[in-house]
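Listing S7. Sequence submitted for prediction.
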Amino acid sequence: MADESGVTTSGRTDSYSEATAVAADDVPHSTPGDTIVAVPNRRKEAQRAFREGDAEYSKEVHQSMAAEEHDAFGEFVKVMVFGGLDGIITTFAVVASIAGADLKIEVVLVLGFSNLLADGVSMAFGEYISGDAEQKYVSMERQREAWELQNDPEGEMKEMVDLYVEKGFKKEDAENVIRTMAKYGEFFVDHMMTEELGMLPPESSSDVFRGLLANSTVMFFSFLVFGLVPLLSYICLSTIDGITSGTLFGISCGLTAVALFCLGCYSSKFSKYPWYRQGAFVMVNGATAAAVAYLVGWGVSSAIDLEGCE
């Protein structure tokens, strides 16, 4: 399809134009220069343009003048994926090692649940402590940068000029940019934090506490929910007459593989890699850890007497 200028446009771009046109109808009457078009799912459209390498579509999305919305859930994705992945692999490693040692089903349940709850609490607590320590360190570094700018502004500006020159700026251009930014002290300190130290500016104490508490909670429940998957076959099917521990372990392997693959597929939403590649990568990672645990359990049980545990 071609527009009046003869430039070919895709069907997706037409759909986007229709969406912006519909959204514009809902905007109160104003002059054309003041109109702000609210585009549905603008962030998702921008992500899709990036994944497909469609620069023209990306320009059209950003020229909508709509404020880009941010997914609040997105900031918990890393914690959720990390907690879920660690929960599945850690619990399944326990199950696999017990299966390799050919121990009783009761041993699987006791050690599995003990590991699940203990590690879940430990992971959540570790997430809070490590995040708190990081924020305190960042805050201390920002205070240092602010103090140095106050006591030696020329020296701090020279450091930033040198940094910009290393990035490819001409010295004169770098000096103009830095001296302009240095007029705005708080902004310049935050900028030095990012460019010189590679740190994001610290948040307020209340925001930090809420963020750390939320991350710890997400970590705990993610670890708990996903870590429960390898135990489901033992919980639900172990009371069936005639079912063997080998069968239960096989079902556990299947459930764990599916959960790992799904977790990997979900994480692909936030990367350029296709869902099947990310899912397969996570699943292979879990399978490798389980194989090591199984072999260790089998090797130890072969080397020592475990008759009392059977």
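Caption to Listing S7: primary sequence and predicted structure tokens for the chain studied. The first helix runs from residue 11 to 25. The mean pLDDT is 78.
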